[in-house]
Amino acid sequence: MRRAVDFVVMANTFHGVPDKARLARGVAAILKPGGRFAIINWHHRPRDETTVLGKPRGPKTEMRMTPSDVAAEVETANLKLVDVIELPPYHYGAIFENPVH
Questions:
Q1: 86, β-bridge pairs
Q2: What domains sit in the chain, N to C, each tagged with a CATH number?
Q3: CA 9 to each of CA 16, 68, 83: distance values in angstroms, whole numbers, following the listed order
Q4: 63-92 residue pLDDT tens
Q5: Rounded to an integer, what is the distance from CA 34 to the centroid of its chain?
Q6: pTM of the full predicted structure?
Q7: 39-48 pLDDT, tens per residue?
Q8: Helix axes 67-74, 20-30, angle to 10 degrees
Q9: Which of 5, 35, 64, 92 minimizes the number of CB atoms within 10 Å of its CB?
């Protein structure tokens, strides 16, 4: 398959993907060299600590992933973690790049 895209973003769903490494390989297959894959995720905190309008929000506590957990899955597809940014109050963004060969 020809690499066709510069950027892929996935928000608030990576934690629930059954085969995260397979998904990462699929993204890597369509990224141009130098293309980026951004994953926005909930911080690994107890769900009852991430409230909106007084009610817990986000995935179950046991499904939440740290940035290093996400990197361990995505880097199996030869995508390299280039940055982790804070997205207050409850999220972070992990940004991966497809290396230029």
A1: 92
A2: 5-47+66-97 (3.40.50.150)
A3: 15, 18, 14
A4: 999 999 999 999 999 999 999 999 999 999
A5: 17
A6: 0.93
A7: 999 999 999 9
A8: 60
A9: 5
pLDDT at 95 over 80: yes
Is the pLDDT reported for residue 3 higher than 80? no
Residues contacting 62, CB < 8 A, separation 6+: none
User: What secondary structure, in 3-state letters, does the chain show?
Assistant: CCCCEEEEEEECCHHHCCCHHHHHHHHHHHEEEEEEEEEEEECCCCHHHCEECCEECCCCHHHCCCHHHHHHHHHHHCCEEEEEEEECCCEEEEEEECCCC
Place of tokens 């600590």: 49
CA angle at residue 34 from 32 to 35, to 5 degrees?
A: 55
Share of the chain above pLDDT 70, in %: 97
69 and 17 Cβ atoms separated by less than 8 Å: no
Tell me what the mean pLDDT of segment 15-40 comes to.
97
